[in-house]
Every structure is written in C-alpha cells, then in structure tokens.
Amino acid sequence: MIKLNLSAPVLALGIIVATQALALQPIEFNEDELVIQAVQGEIAPPAIRESIYRVHADGEVVLLPGTGSITYNFRTGDSAVRMAGNHVEPAVSLYNLGRDGSRTGNDNRALNALSMIGNEVRILSGAAAGASGWVVGKHGGVEHVMVDFDPDVYYDLAIGNLMQIRTVGAGMRLTNVEGVRVFNSSPALIEALNRNGAGITEDGKLRIGVTHRIPAKIMGSGLGRDHVFTGDYDIQMFDEEVNERYNLHTLRFGDIVAIMDADHSYGRIWLGGAVSIGIVSHGRSDSAGHGPGVTTLFTSREGRIEPVIDADANLKNLLGIP
User: Fold this and answer.
1) What span, in angstroms and rounded, lies between the C-alpha atoms of 6 and 112?
2) Residue 46, burial from CB neighbour count under 10 angstroms (0-12, 13-18, 19+)
3) Any idea where the domains of the chain sit in the sequence?
4) E strands within 25-82?
5) How far apart are CA 73 and CA 151, in angstroms?
6) Among 123, 51, 64, 130, residue whose Cα is nearest residue 92
7) I need a labelling partner for 209 at 20 to 30 A (CA). Which of 171, 190, 309, 315 fits?
8) What count of other Cβ atoms lies within 10 Å of the Cβ of residue 151?
C-alpha cells in the first residue's frame, strides 16, 4: 500500500493531502478481450556446466548453486542478494522441452511468453497433485518460469513433476492511461496493484509503489533483445557506493522496482526520462555484467509512470503468498 504520512506540520492540510492521495482511478485494461489458455511445464533439474566453476568479476573462482530445481529456502519475499548462489531462481523452476527436446523450442517459448506474473499454476503429477500456486518470475538464457506455493507443498514436490498454468494476460493493454505499455502481467496482478494503492493520477500517469528506484546505467545482461515478453535483465552490483546509494543489498525476490531512464517498449534501452517497472525474478550473480534479474511489467518512454517508494511493494504481499 502507498502510505500517507500525515505528520503534525501538515495536519491542517490533512484533508487536502488525503484527497490528493486518493484521487486515483484504478488501472483499467481490456479484460473482456483476453484469452485464457493452458500451458504446461515440469520442474527443471539443476544444471552445472562442463566446467563446474563460475568466474567472478574480481577473479574469484567458485562453485555455487544456480538455476533450476526446487529452492526450499529462498522464495518470494526472501533476499535476492544475501545468498551463496549464482542466478538462483526462487521457489520452483519450470521448463518444457516439448516435442523438439529444446529449451529454445516452440513449446518452451510458449510457456515463457504466455505465462504472466500472478497466473495460477496447478500441480498435475506427484504427491502434491492438486495444489495450486502462482507464477512469480521469468528467467532468460535458461528460459525458465518460476512458480511459488504454500510452504506445506514443498516437501511433496519432486523434479519432473508436471504443472499446468492457466495463462491470461497476453495481449493486455491499459485503457485509461496513454503512453504506458504493459508486459508479463496477469489480471490478478493488476487487481492486486489496484487494491494496494496503485492507479492513474489526475494528470494521466500510472502511480505505482516500488521498493527501489534503480538507474538504467547499472543494468547489464539482457540488453540487446527486441522484446521483453520473456526473460529478464540484470542489476549490476559491482560498485559498493552505488549499492549503498540505491539500497541494493535489500533487494528481495518479488520486489516491484523502477528502472529510471529505461524504455522497454521494443527491447531494453537507455532513454533519458523514460521509466520502466519490473519484478525481481532471480538472484545475485558476481559474474561480469550480471546480478539480480528484473522481469518487465510496465514501461513508458514518455515518463508517464510515477514510482512511489513503498517497502511493502512485493509479490508476497500483493498476491498473499504464504
């Protein structure tokens, strides 16, 4: 929720301030036009390259847990930074090798492109069959979709368990604000944002709570794509003064963040005055050019997004993930 601080010096203006804070229209979108489909994936195993080591930007050579698998102790709302890991994905990682047996094939591409943050996922096989959860992120390169569940579900999960996602959100467009594009967002996420203080201002901007405002100049891996419907791009954390200035050590999985001077309309570029909003979807990396990954939710090349700092702007709170 975007919080209102009515401290003593402004109590006399409290009614005016409160009116301004509440003068928001809910975010509206073309809900009746959206198609609901099913995609499937299975829990991906962890994978380690032929050389088991990762080389850090400072020259350190390490073996660390990475992508894939069931991650029991780093889930939505947990630190994406304070971990002994490299590109660790929160909760449960899915892929679909499909008919051609490839991460880059059509079936896995559909799983990635059509899965939206907040979509419902249901377990189809194994001891936890019938339980449901949420889509919480996407990760490029390995082309995984991350999903989270009630904690009681985890010890009944096994690598290879089949899951089905009820996808809805592809083709979404915002109908009561100009100059803002939306990506990777489900109706459930939009409704949660509306309930928690996001909305359209009187001067036609999308106001949204974020945990961090991050400068585009420190964004790394993931640049150069011509779209943001899959994957993510990384927050580089190699400058400790920058980390302290922007409070980057507090980044959590599921944090809603603003990337300032970044336009994601047709790929990820630096553009002065543009604003993009995303969600932290994978964990830290000390490999050159890498770091915690951000999956795009909204962008405005005209700067028609107004990010407001809110420490509670995290999927755990928005979706009610236990």
Assistant:
1) 44
2) middle
3) 28-32+173-319, 35-167
4) 37-43, 54-55, 61-62
5) 10
6) 123
7) 171
8) 11
**Number of Cβ atoms within 10 Å of the Cβ of 166:** 17
Which are the contacts of 276, defined by CB distance < 8 A and separation ≥ 6?
A: 258, 259, 262, 263, 264, 268, 296, 298, 299, 300, 305
Secondary-structure class of domain 28-32+173-319 per CATH: mainly beta
User: And the tokens for 25?
Assistant: 């229209």
**Interval 89-114: pLDDT, tens:** 999 999 999 888 888 889 999 999 99
8 A C-beta contact, residue 265 and residue 172 = no
Tokens of 200: 């359209």
CB 302 within 8 A of CB 240: no
Please name which of 317, 319, 281, 321 lies closest in space to residue 297, comparing C-alpha atoms: 281
Instruction: Tell me how far apart the alpha carbons of residues 108 and 282 are, in angstroms, rounded to a whole number.
Output: 18
Question: 28-32+173-319 and 35-167: same fold?
Answer: no
* Residue 2 token pair: 């975007």
* CA dihedral angle for residue 142, residue 222, residue 75, residue 310, rounded to 10 degrees: -160
pLDDT tens-place string over residues 125-182: 999 999 999 999 999 999 999 999 999 999 999 999 999 999 999 999 999 999 999 9
State the first-to-last Cα distance of the chain, in angstroms, to the nearest integer: 18
pTM recorded for the entire structure: 0.92
Q: Is 241 helix (H, G, I), strand (E, B) or coil?
A: helix
Asked whether 166 and 122 are in contact (CB, 8 A), the reply is yes
> Which CATH architecture best describes the domain 35-167?
Beta Barrel (2.40)
